[in-house]
Amino acid sequence: MKKVIAIPTENGKLCGHFGQCETFAIIETENQNIIREEYLIPPAHQPGIYPKFLAEQGVDVIISGGMGHRAIQLFAVHNIEVCMGVNADVPARLVEQYLNGALRTGANICNH
User: What CATH architecture applies to the domain 2-99?
Assistant: First the structure.
């Protein structure tokens, strides 16, 4: 099964708030293996833009430290699974943890 996973990044690691990221790591997986990894510069941040942008990239899952409630709702509209409260690490490691069912999630670190 293929899945495309997005991770907001800053300085090569997960960015705590996806709306403040420098790039999105877009990682394609198949049969529990990473088959492609690329970094995309997102459009200028405005409310509601990133969920649409990531849906256009074919994203199935977003791994994030936190995000606003409207973004969470918009990801749901696009049928994108949201994993929040994740600690900063390099994207490939986070995806491997997700694929193995070992990704640690927690509270949404964003308060807006």
Answer: 2-Layer Sandwich (3.30)
Residue 110 makes CB contacts below 8 A (sequence gap 6+) with: 17, 65, 66, 67, 68
Q: Report the alpha-carbon distance of residue 10 to residue 20 in Å, rounded.
A: 8
CA–CA distance, 51 with 70 (Å, rounded to integer): 10
Using CA atoms, how far apart are residues 92 and 95, in angstroms rounded to an integer? 5
pLDDT above 70 covers a percentage of the chain that reads 96
Taking the model in full, what pTM does it have? 0.94
Residue 47: band (very low, low, confident or very high) from pLDDT cuts 50, 70, 90: confident
Place of tokens 């699974």: 81
Tokens matching residue 66: 């936190």
Q: List, for residues 51-61, the tens digit of each pLDDT value.
A: 999 999 999 99
Structural domain spans, the chain: 2-99
Q: Which two tokens stand for residue 2?
A: 């293929």
